[in-house]
């Protein structure tokens, strides 16, 4: 596993997996599932690093046009890790990602659970979440 922020922007492959740095130790079986997809795994801790640093780094890496698939994976329920999933929208604001497959996972009970981008988007909108929550009760 490579440290995302210490990796050269040319050091990429077609599939790039970005994980919260605690994923491997906290959810090892889920991490092994990711290793089956690709060994091109980068880690970053958003408790330590600012989101903008991650966005800027990924813009540089994606701009090299080698990446065809971006996978983001974190543990579930972490207020820091959830930010990693928000990177996608920031990348979309900066560049065209239409030729890149993007997948988001959270690890729960050592299994990967795919999270649709719509769920990630709504997770930032607390008033909308309140509306959805109370309309279902």
Assign the CATH class.
Alpha Beta
Gross morphology: globular
By CATH, the architecture is named 3-Layer(aba) Sandwich
Q: What's the β-strand tally?
A: 6
Beta-strand residue fraction: 15-25%
Strand order of the largest sheet: 1-3-2-4-5-6
If you consult CATH, what is the topology?
Answer: Dna Topoisomerase Vi A Subunit, Chain: A, domain 2
The secondary-structure element order is EEHHEHEHEEHH
The percentage helix is 40-55%
Mean pLDDT reading: 96
Number of domain units: 1
Low-confidence stretches: none
Task: Name a few traits of the molecule.
alpha/beta; six-stranded mixed sheet; Dna Topoisomerase Vi A Subunit, Chain: A, domain 2; about 25% strand; globular; single chain; about 140 residues
């Amino acid at each position: 596993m490579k440290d995302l922020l210490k990796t050269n922007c040319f050091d990429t492959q077609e599939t790039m997996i970005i994980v919260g740095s605690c994923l491997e130790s906290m959810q090892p079986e889920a991490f092994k599932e990711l290793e089956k997809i690709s060994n091109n795994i980068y880690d970053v801790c958003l408790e330590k690093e600012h989101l903008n640093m991650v966005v800027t780094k990924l813009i540089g890496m994606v701009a090299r046009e080698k990446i065809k698939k971006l996978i983001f994976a974190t543990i579930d329920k972490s207020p820091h890790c959830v930010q990693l999933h928000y990177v996608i929208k920031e990348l979309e604001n900066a560049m065209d990602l239409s030729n890149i497959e993007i997948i988001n996972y959270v690890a729960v009970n050592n299994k990967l659970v795919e999270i649709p981008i719509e769920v990630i988007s709504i997770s930032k909108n607390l008033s909308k979440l309140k509306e959805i929550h109370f309309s279902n009760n």
